[in-house]
Amino acid sequence: MKLLFTLCFAFVSVIGFSQSYEKGMEKAFALWQEGKATEASNMFERISAVETENWIPLYYVAYVNIIDAFSEKDKTRLQLKLDKAKTSLEKAKQLSPDNVEILIMEAMHNTAWIAFDGATYGMKYGAVNTAIYQKATAMAPENPRVALSSAEWNMGMAQYFGKDTAPYCKDIEKALELFTTFKNETPFYPSWGEGRAKEVLASCK
Amino acid sequence: MKQFIFFTALLFSVCAHAQTTISGKVTDHKGIPIPGANVFLVGTYDGTSTDIDGNFSFSTSEEGSQTLSISFMAFETYELKEDVRQMNQLEVKLKEAINTLTGVTLTAGTFEAGDNAKVTALNTLDIVTTAGAVGDVVGALQTLPGTSTVAEDGRLFVRGGEADETQIFIDGIRVFTPYNTSPNNSPTRGRYSPFLFSGTSFSTGGYSAEYGEALSSVLLLNTINEPEEEATDISIMSIGAGLGNTQIWGENSLSVNLSYMNLAPYLELFPDRNEWEKPFQVASGEAVYRHKLDNGLFKFYSAFDYTNFAVNQRNINYEDRVKYDITNKNWYSNFSYKGALKNDWILSTGASLSLSKNDMMIIDDAIDQTETAYHLKMNLKKKFNSHIKLNTGIEYFSSNYEQDFQDENNFQFTSEVQKELPVIFAETDIFFTNKLALKAGLRTSYDGVSDKILVSPRTSLAYKTGKNDQVSFAYGNFYQTAANSYLQYAENLKPQQAQHYILNYQYTFDGRIFRAETYYKKYDDLVKFDGLYPEYGSDFSNNGAGYATGLDVFWRDEKTFKNVDYWVSYSYLDTKRDFRNYEAEVMPNFAANHNFSLVTKYWINDLKSQFGFTYSFTSGRPYDDRNTTEFMNAKTKSYNNIGLNWAYLVSQQQILFVSVTNPLGFKNISGYQYADAPNSNGFYDRQAVRPNADSFVFVGFFWTISSNKNRNQLDNL
To answer: Most C-beta atoms within 10 A of its C-beta, which of A51, A143, A146, B391?
Structure first.
């Protein structure tokens, strides 16, 4: 019986390990698609608690909460979500320093604050974001999310200062091309943005 | 093969059968269900989220003792270590976590400014865009309640206190000579440019046990931790020029600011009441070097300035003008390190060194003053959890002041003051709930003169009365060593003492802040002397005393009117003191009953311009009319001033800035200087103390060169 138990344990650990990561992640994405952001965030968080060396689940904890925060009107709840995103990104950064995807997500976090209250947070985060996008572009010019996000940011700034946004449409087009060429083999590596790029490009015309 | 499949299937079924169900309900302390909480067994994939009624249920194949974790935003994480079979139908009440943004804050007495502050009264931008302040940190703070405008002086006078009752700290380390040298009747400016600082905290009383040697107030300035990008800033002004540059490489960065001011061309156009032999000129520079380490940040800040002028001013006691020829050299360096240690302890340590030298010629008397001082400080902080924080530290102040006096007949007199002050302090912040918080601290120092241990308790209590408002109370006991100008003639003076009682109400709502604060301050052991001036042979004592009580009101609103930001401050002050050579306990000449300021800023997008308007009013200040028998019984006219400014964005990186102070030319009088002896009719002659110039015009052009075209010096204006 004891042998059976040990075998059982070994079996579950060996076969179960990678399988449960995949299953878990898939389940989390499914929850998110159903509109259950809190449940999805919880699931990603549970995965990150087991996969202590993997930055990807933490990245998604941040991503889910940031996207959710963009539609949040209550400041208290907004702060809770964005703070959760921020702490997750901090942890992710420790596991994977100089990761351009995490940098972009940090800028998204800042943008969520600016979107909520530009007068208060525009000054604080505006310059920080410009610096992040510059750094990210220097690090990974071939990354489509870097190209898209910095182009969108520059468009926003141009709009704010009453300048023409048209020159940045070319950057969006370029980002769209990058989406077709960019490859990363890591499972569940961030892949968002293509749809958004098309949307923005449509508004250009 | 068949056997293997069978075996695997068997294993699968065996393993799958060993399932335990974990279930329960999660609520807050009032029993209200918490939906969306994250419930899981630590180290496994087994878990779920609570449903709308706070219920959860999931199954696990784990056995034996496991840790169940339940977490939800705004609550403290709950952990239960138990046999999984016991984990069913659990009733879990989560404890509320302390929310630093919406929870109660310990604010009595303090105006926080800067990025991290929850309630921001003024930010860096405000300091530089306040009309009339012309980029001076101290000038902008004088639009806050609790301060009195003493136009001929320019320093911070807080709640009936003298200017030297306020101390300034950079990154927690003391600045010994924070103000520029200026001619009599010209307001001085703070030495430090606001551009290098990211946060400011101005406390008008009841402040933390971490700070001492200040009877009234502390101003805490923090240098920027991480500059955002490399840039060069050029400024060309009607009174001088400035150059700034920031470089970033790897984990290092360096910011340098240089400036030179010379009033000669300006005085040529707009002469003032003085006769200038050598124009007022200041050359100054500041630099901050920062180095990021794995777990900490090292900063080195250094500033120097050189001031020189020679001026002939009228004095009632002399027929001819009195000549003041002054050269001041000042050097200040400060390093600080802040880093994380094991077990959540945070270490901050630093030291400052200050050298200040004044060479003065007053008529034919030569006076040389040299002050050398240093401050060493180390403190340890720990956040035990979101409820309890501890801050403890030791520090040491040392200063040496030397004055050489030599008159035209070669009479010489040298005096020296040596001060040493070791201090130890500890303070704790306890957040009982999101509504109730307490700060309690103790500061202990050793005074060599009286050979006594001085103990200063400090405490403050805050209670959140509603979603947007709170009340707080603060009490503190404060000591400050007597000024060098007394100690150089009398070695045995004890430190002076003050006690503060403060009651504060604060309301914040969507871009609006309302604050009302009432206080009572009691002074003891103030220095007294006999004769007209403190001098060798005067009889000194610690027999002085006094009080100050009043009400400070502040209202700021950035939301109601589009593109308009304004704030209003009003302070009522009732104070009397018996100190210096006063004959009785009276209202001192730097105090005024009523102080009012209105500051507005209006941004017009079409004109790419920001307009600023500041109005300040101070009721009459007392002076002693020597032709009456009563002491300090007369009052000046009230003081009125208007500041106007216009910042125009020429391009995104170029700004034109124009500012005018007192355009209406109010004739302000700060007091009267009386003759030391009566004239032939037995009457004491007098002359009005007036600003050297009633109005002031400033024009500047600011240009930023950086790779990021959106950046400009608007942030700096």
So the answer is: A146
pLDDT beyond 60 at B716? no
Dist CA B91 CA B714 (whole Å): 56
The residues near B231 (Cβ < 8 Å, ≥ 6 apart) are B244, B245, B246, B704, B705, B706, B708, B711
* Token digits of residue B627: 């032709």
Task: Determine whether the interchain pair A4/B11 forms a contact, defined as Cβ–Cβ distance below 8 Å.
Answer: yes
Please give the CATH number for the structural domain made up of A14-115.
Answer: 1.25.40.10
* Tens digit of each residue's pLDDT (9 = 90 or more) over A77-135: 898 899 999 999 999 999 998 899 999 999 999 999 988 887 777 777 887 898 899 88
Cβ(B581)–Cβ(B155) below 8 Å: no
Report chain B residues whose CB lies below 8 A from the CB of A130: 228-229, 708, 710-711
Q: DSSP assignment, residue B33? A: B
β-pairing, B609-618 vs B622-623, is unpaired
- What average pLDDT does the segment B239-262 reach? 90
Chain A residues in contact with B564 (beta carbon < 8 A): none
- At A65 the three-state DSSP class reads helix
List CB contacts (< 8 A) between A162 and chain B: 605
Distance CA B443, CA B459 (A): 11
Q: Do B36 and A39 touch (CB under 8 A)?
A: yes
The Cα A129–Cα A106 span in angstroms is 8
Contact at 8 Å (CB) between B388 and B376?
no
| CA B257/CA B553 separation, integer angstroms | 36
Residues of chain B with CATH 2.60.40.4130: 2-93
Determine the average pLDDT of the residues in A59-86.
92
Q: Give B519-528 pLDDT, tens digit per residue.
A: 999 999 999 9
Most A CBs within 10 A among B6, B17, B22, B38, hence the mutation to make, goes to B38
Q: How far is CA B134 from CA A21, B398, B614, B657, B691, in A?
A: 60, 34, 12, 10, 17
Return the residue of A nearest to B512 by Cα: A120
CA distance readout (Å), A86 to A41, A91, B43, B78, B626: 13, 9, 23, 21, 67
Of B11, B229, B715, the CB nearest to A11: B11
Kindly report, residue by residue over B14-70, the tens digit of the pLDDT: 445 568 899 999 999 889 999 999 999 998 989 999 999 999 999 998 889 999 999
Identify the architecture of domain B2-93 in CATH: Sandwich (2.60)
For the structural domain made of B110-716, what CATH number should be given?
Answer: 2.40.170.20
Residue B116's pLDDT band (boundaries 50, 70, 90)?
Answer: very low
Which amino acid belongs to residue B314? R
Alpha helix (H) residue ranges in B535-678 = none
Q: Where are the domains of chain A?
A: 14-115, 141-205
Residues in A lying within 8 Å of B, measured between beta carbons: 4, 7-8, 11-12, 20, 24, 36, 38-39, 42-43, 45-47, 49-50, 75-76, 79-81, 83-84, 119-120, 123-124, 126-128, 130-131, 134, 157, 161-162
Instruction: Please state the pTM of the whole predicted model.
Output: 0.80
Are the beta carbons of B102 and A47 separated by less than 8 Å? no
Q: Give the ipTM of the model, two decimals please.
A: 0.84
- Let me know the angle formed at the C-alpha of B298 by B290 and B173, rounded to the nearest 5 degrees: 105
H helical segments located in chain A: 2-33, 37-50, 55-69, 75-95, 100-116, 118-139, 144-160, 167-181, 194-204
Distance from the A160 Cα atom to the nearest Cα atom in chain B, whole angstroms: 10
Query: What is the average pLDDT score of chain B?
Result: 87
CB of B221 within 8 A of CB of B701? no
Q: With CB atoms and an 8 Å threshold, state whether A50 touches B115.
A: no
